[in-house]
Amino acid sequence: MIRFFYNMAPNPMKVALFLYEADLEHELVPIDTKKAEQHTDTFKALNPNAKLPVLTDGDAVIFDSNAILLYLAEKTGQFLPPEGDANRGALLSWLMFVASGLGPFSGQAVHFRNFAPEKPPYAVKRYDYEARRHWQIVDDRLAKGPYMLGETYTIVDMAVWGWGSRLTYMLGDDAIMEKYPNLDRLMSEIDARPAAHRAAALKDHHAFKAEFDEAAMRSLYPQVFAPDIELGESPA
């Protein structure tokens, strides 16, 4: 039995979308990161990095959302080009682009705009710029075809959807989708899929903590409360 450790953040939602697209039987295991449940020894035995999502499948333990997407795609043979297909390389490239660029820059953009105790103008500007630059690359790619790999809906589109659903909030721009019309088209199409409706409905399965109080801040951003260190030192 697959066990899916999740919350409602962008990365777990990518995996939820796949699980419902493939109609895979699974057990939901909510992890409330505002209550520090990701820092328990039990959870860190699954993911030492204390991040969501995590998926277990029998003895297999997989963390990092794009690794999970690739694992599930290979397990089921769905939503990816077959071995030997030229698009297999493109899928890996774009999947890593989301993992190493699109997601991290978008996450840092929203962090420095909305959550950082201090908001250095340079950091706000840098991450906003880089997030928009990465999203423009996605939009340009989608100008060439309906999906990230052309005519075929794949796990790359699911990975993009996970972050794209929060774009207005992350970049603090209510008109952001007007700047990315091809992305807007893809998002609207995926949003209309039954699997996306089921993924969005996960919010009704478990009442995650809503308050962003000091305890939540300590859980999500412990560096705020950690002692200052000198440049060149390693944190304890």
From TrEMBL:
Gene3D superfamilies: 1.20.1050.10, Glutaredoxin. Residues 84-212 form the GST C-terminal domain. Pfam families: GST_C_2, GST_N. Residues 1-80 form the GST N-terminal domain. InterPro entries: Glutathione-S-Trfase_C-like, Glutathione-S-Trfase_C_sf, Glutathione_S-Trfase, Glutathione_S-Trfase_N, Thioredoxin-like_sf. This is GST-like protein.
